[in-house]
Each structure stands twice: as C-alpha cells, then as structure tokens.
C-alpha cells in the first residue's frame, strides 16, 4: 500500500464516519473531503471538478425542472386519491395505492411524491378508520420500487450512468434496469400486502399524538386589568427568558398573533399561549400582573383561527437546522413560525422548546400564518406534510403541456432518438418557451445541495480510482468471495452498497462502489454491467432504516413509527431484493 492510497482511504473513512454521525450536512461533508484531496495534491483541480460537468449530474438538474413542472400541474393528487378506493379492504387499497405510486416514481423524483401524498394518504386513512401507520411505510417503499424501474427514476441511476459514459462504456438504456427491478418490485409489493402488512404497527400519527397530549405542553395566561405588563414589550416583560416555557401566540380582541417578535407590546386582557415544560409554570405565576389559567382544557384546534394555522414539518438530512437547538436556529425570526412541539421516535420531546437539538426526521408542529406552507413548500430545511390549501396550480393548457413534454422526453430517450441528457435539455427548453415554468420557478425546484453532493462524490470516486485504492479494495473483495466465484463477488458488492446506503446516502454509496466494482470486473474479466446494475438497485433499495433514504425519513414522524419498525419490516425486504437482484443479474449478465 502506497502513502497516497493510505491517505485517500483515510479521508474516505473519515468522510463515511462523519456521514454516519451526521456531524454536518452530507453535501458539506463530501465537498470538504474533496477539498482536502485537492489541497493535498492527490487530485488535480481538473479531475476533482469533473463531477460538476458530469452528464449524469447535469441530467439530474434538468429533471428537477421537468418534475417540478409536472408536479405543479395538480394532476398527480387526483390519481392517488382515486386509486385508494373505498377502504372496505385495507390490503386491496394498499395494492391499489402502491402500483400507481411505483409507476409515477419511475419517471418523477420520488421525494416530492412522498411529500405530496403523505397528507393525502393520512387523511384518507383517518376518514376510513384505518391506522395511517399501515399505509405510510408502504407509500415510501412503493416510490423506491418505482425509482429503480427506469434510468430517470432516481438520481442514483443517472450518476452511475454518467460514470459509465466517462469510462467509455455504453451506459444504461431507459428500461434496462427494469429487467431486475420489475420482478423485484412485484415481489416487494406482494410482500408488503401480505407479511409486511401484518408486521406494520397500528400507531397514532404525530398529529394524533400532538393533539392527545396537548394538555401536557400547552398553557394559557392573561394580562390583568391595570397590569404593570401593559404597554411593555415581550422582551421587557421577561417572557423571552423563561427557563421552560415558550410564548407561541397572543390573542387580542379575537385577533390572533402567531410568531410574536420580541418588540410586540402587551395590552390588558391579552391572552397568552405558551408551550413547553408545564412543571416550570411557576415562573409565570411569579410574574406580577399575569394571571395563569389552571386546569385549562386548551386544545390544538383552539390555536388556529383566522390568520393562524398549525403545520407539520419533517426535518430533512440536508437541513441547516440539524444539530442546532430551536433557539440557535432563530426559527421564529427566520421562518415566521413558532415551534409548538417536537415529535421524535414515536414520542413528544418533553424539554424546553428552545433547548431541543433538532435531528433529521424530527416532526415539528408549527404555529404560523396562513401563507407559511406556500412560502416554504420548496424549502431544503424541512418537508411540509400538512395539506397546502392554496396549491401552486397552473392553468389547464400548461398542465397538458407539462405532461406532453414529459412523455416526449421519455419517448426520445427510450427509442434512442436522443441521449437522456439531450432529451431532458430539449424538454426544459420547451417548458421555458411555452412559459409552462419560469426561471424563478425552475430555481425553486432544483435541489442544489443534492447536485453538490453528487458532483463532490464523483470527485471522491475518481480519487479512489486514480490512486489505486479502488483496485486494492477490489482485490480484497475478490479474496473474500473467492470460494463463491463471480456470484459471490456480486453478492459482496450488493451487500456493501446496501449497508452504505442505510448509513450514509444513496448517491454517495453508489459513487464509492462504482470504481471498486469496475476494478473487480476487470480483474475477473466479466461484463461490468452486472455490477453496475447490482449497485443501482442496492443503492436505492433502502428499507431497513428511516435515515438511509429521504422517502423513509419523511413518513417516519407522521406515521408514528419507531426506528425498530423499519428494521422489522425492511430487513426481510432487503434480503428478498438481494436474492432477486443477484439471481437475475447472474443469469442475464454473467452466465
């Protein structure tokens, strides 16, 4: 082992540990690792920045715009709402939901699909008397099944495709992955409608938990007549420095003020709503001129009238809020909403609101103004899972244009008339020319953090390849699987990719494994396509944890799930996917 190989491996291992411990946002961690390799001279700037011009990465950027145009057409909501049916047979409704969801995810980004349909499915479940926890994990899994069906189903497929093109290989065709993923997806859907359905828990959703425990964290107080607090600001009254309570709303003459700034002045007879640790309510009782209401029957529905509304939001992996407390994030001033409660791992966190350190998957109950959902629906910091009342819907003509453009793009790529990148580029140009989407709208839908992660990860992959680290690791894997031959090597690659996907991110897992697999294929003198297909499926088939794939993370809190629920349901599914994938890959590309 040379010093250069050792250094590259040291940086990569440090990057993986940082990703697993979530010490910062994934895109920042991977970019930081790439920067170290550039500064140290291991990678030249030209090679390190190849990821930023990679065809797969650029195609992902274009597809964000196309998918955004289709999403705003409003057609998708009607599809799933109708597919769920009457609800007389929950398992039949589950099947009816999963098939169209998988179909949509084959051509559109699955993350916005899960965000869009989580409130739709949850509302349907509540109307039919079915526990939403029986449907939300299947909702996430169905989009994962569908994402592996086509070249454009997930960014991971396009990243691997882009790497193959740079190596002078053919790359994936539009439906090549379906040779494996279609049988695997069918097995997955059957599993979820039978064994998986039995294993799914019947739990209260985060919404129900917040509502039922509202007496445990909501308190109300009144500014008395002739109170010395009258005319003082919130700050001057000492209501910003309470050790366990957090002011979220002021009600004055029937008018509600949510997300109250520190300079807001109090009046006589103002009603103040607090959230937090009620055992510290003695602080309020000690404030002269403030009467605390004891034995209150305050409910969440009492908070939202007129301009105030309650919204649920799930913290994302890419969020700038991760590892910050609510106070440190300045949530109220930055987002214009007050945090009422935080739900994590099937329970509400009973701490002072400002001191809660936020993690990916946390579900926040927010009290905000009516326009909050529309203003922050495209935020990278959290996924809004409450229904958005005023949807950003374009006119019918533009809806048809968006759908026809998508069909045209898929057809051009599927029949090899144009490469995928050129087909996506043409689609975006048409959307702009027809004014179906604006430049401002396009900017909202492009996930720049995902693109940075992909581009940086490609640079890391190049470092593994050029330094010889990939070849060294490949030799080690071949030794491990020596007794099982080529099929053993495929199993090892699939298994390791799955493990990486569960603990870091799918794109980073794929980019790390691709150069290693190419070295394995070269040393074994077999078609590298066998390994690339296995990696593409394994990098998306993340079922055993809520943190490995953003779709699982989105339904984590809203479904009232625990971490162990994913392991109980997902590990058998991971094994089924491994068996189906390795078997088909072996007989199609190896034998």
TrEMBL record:
It is found in: Membrane. The keyword Transmembrane applies. Residues 205-290, 298-382 form the RCK C-terminal domain. PROSITE patterns: NA_SULFATE, RCK_C. GO terms for cellular component: plasma membrane. Its main location: membrane. InterPro entries: Cit_transptr-like_dom, DASS-Related_Transporters, Na/sul_symport_CS, RCK_C, RCK_C_sf. This is SLC13 family permease.
């Amino acid at each position: 082992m040379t010093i250069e190989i050792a250094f590259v491996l040291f940086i990569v291992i440090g990057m993986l540990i940082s990703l697993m411990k979530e010490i910062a946002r994934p895109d920042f961690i991977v970019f930081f690792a790439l920067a170290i390799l550039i500064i140290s001279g291991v990678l030249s700037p030209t090679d390190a920045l190849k990821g930023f011009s990679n065809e797969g990465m650029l195609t992902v950027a274009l597809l964000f715009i196309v998918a955004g145009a289709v999403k705003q057409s409003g057609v998708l909501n009607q599809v799933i709402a109708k597919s769920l049916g009457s609800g007389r047979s929950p398992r039949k409704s589950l099947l009816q939901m999963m098939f169209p969801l998988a179909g949509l995810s084959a051509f559109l980004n699955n993350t916005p699909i899960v965000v869009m349909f989580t409130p739709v499915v949850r509302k349907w479940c509540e109307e039919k008397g079915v526990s939403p926890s029986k449907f939300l994990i299947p909702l996430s899994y169905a989009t994962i099944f569908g994402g592996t069906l086509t070249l454009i189903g997930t960014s991971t497929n396009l990243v691997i495709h882009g790497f193959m093109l740079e190596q002078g290989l053919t790359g994936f065709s539009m439906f090549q992955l379906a040779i494996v993923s279609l049988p695997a997806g069918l097995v997955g859907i059957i599993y979820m409608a039978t064994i998986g359905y039995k294993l799914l828990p019947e739990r209260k959703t985060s919404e129900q938990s917040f509502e039922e425990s509202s007496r445990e964290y909501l308190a109300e107080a009144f500014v008395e007549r002739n109170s010395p607090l009258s005319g003082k600001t919130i700050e001057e009254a000492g209501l910003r420095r309470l050790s366990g309570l957090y002011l979220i709303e002021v009600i004055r003459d029937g008018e509600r003020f949510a997300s109250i700034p520190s300079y807001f002045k109090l009046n006589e007879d103002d009603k103040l709503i607090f959230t937090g640790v009620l055992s510290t309510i003695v602080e309020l009782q000690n404030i002269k001129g403030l009467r605390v209401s004891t034995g209150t029957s305050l409910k969440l529905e009492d908070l939202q009238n007129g301009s105030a509304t309650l919204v649920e939001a799930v913290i994302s992996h890419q969020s700038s809020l991760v590892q910050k407390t609510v106070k440190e994030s300045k949530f109220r001033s930055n987002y214009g909403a007050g945090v009422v409660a935080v739900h994590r791992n099937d329970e509400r966190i009973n701490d002072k609101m400002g001191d809660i350190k936020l993690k990916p998957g946390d579900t926040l109950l927010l009290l905000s103004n009516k326009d909050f959902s529309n203003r922050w629906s495209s935020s990278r910091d959290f996924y809004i899972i409450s229904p958005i009342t005023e949807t950003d819907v374009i006119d019918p003509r533009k809806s048809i244009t968006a759908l026809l453009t998508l069909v045209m793009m898929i057809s051009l790529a599927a029949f090899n008339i144009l490469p995928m990148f050129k087909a996506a580029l043409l689609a975006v140009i048409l959307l702009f020319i027809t004014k179906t989407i604006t430049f401002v709208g396009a900017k909202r839908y492009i996930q720049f953090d995902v693109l940075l992660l992909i581009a940086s990860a490609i640079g890391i992959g190049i470092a593994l390849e050029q330094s010889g680290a990939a070849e060294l690791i490949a030799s080690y894997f071949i030794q491990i699987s020596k007794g099982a031959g080529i099929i053993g090597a495929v199993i090892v690659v699939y298994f390791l990719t799955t493990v990486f996907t569960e603990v870091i991110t799918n794109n980073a897992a794929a980019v790390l494994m691709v150069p290693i697999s190419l070295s394995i294929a070269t040393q074994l003198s077999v078609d590298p396509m066998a390994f690339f297909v296995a990696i593409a499926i394994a990098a998306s088939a993340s079922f055993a944890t809520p943190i490995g794939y953003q779709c699982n993370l989105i339904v984590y809190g809203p479904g009232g799930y625990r971490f162990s629920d994913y392991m109980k349901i997902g590990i058998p599914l991971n094994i089924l996917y491994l068996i189906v994938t390795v078997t088909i890959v072996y007989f199609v590309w190896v034998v």
